[in-house]
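Data availability (excerpt). The following record was deposited with the supplementary files.
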Amino acid sequence: MMIECLHNNTEVAANGWHVCTLCRRPLGRWCSGVYQEFEHDNNGDDVNYLARECFRISSEHGWQDGEDIPLGLALVHSEVSEALESWRKNEPLYFVDDDTGKPEGVGAELADVIIRSFGMLVGLGIDVREVIADKMNYNEKRPFKHGGKRA
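Predicted structure:
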C-alpha cells in the first residue's frame, strides 16, 4: 500500500523508496511535522528507520550530543525514573494530557527510554537492528535465571 505524502509530490529514489520531492524523506517518515503510517520496502529494517528518526528529531531539538556517553546514559536513566514516579503516583499506564496534548504515564516514559537509547545508538554509529538481534540471540541461549542473581 502506498501512503501519499502530505505534500503530494513524490518520486522513486535511487534506493527504490518513494520519497517526497520537497522534504526528501521516504514516505511515512515525518513530513511537515505530521507522522503518517508507513509501509515501504525497507528490507525489514523498520527498527533502524525508527532509530534514525529518533536521532534526527532529538538532534534537531538540541538533545543529541552523540559523544557524551555518561550524559546519554543518565538521561536514559532519568526516563526510567520518570516511569517509576508515574507508577508511584498511580497514574494511568498511558494517557494523553487533555491540556497539553503530551503523552504521559509509564508507557510514554518507557517510549522515551527507547527514543533516547535509539538516538544514542545511532549517534555512536551502532546498527540498532544488529545489536538487538545479537543480544536476543545470545539471551535466548542462556540458562533460566542465569548467574544465580535474585533479580
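Summary of structural features: The radius of gyration is 18 Å.
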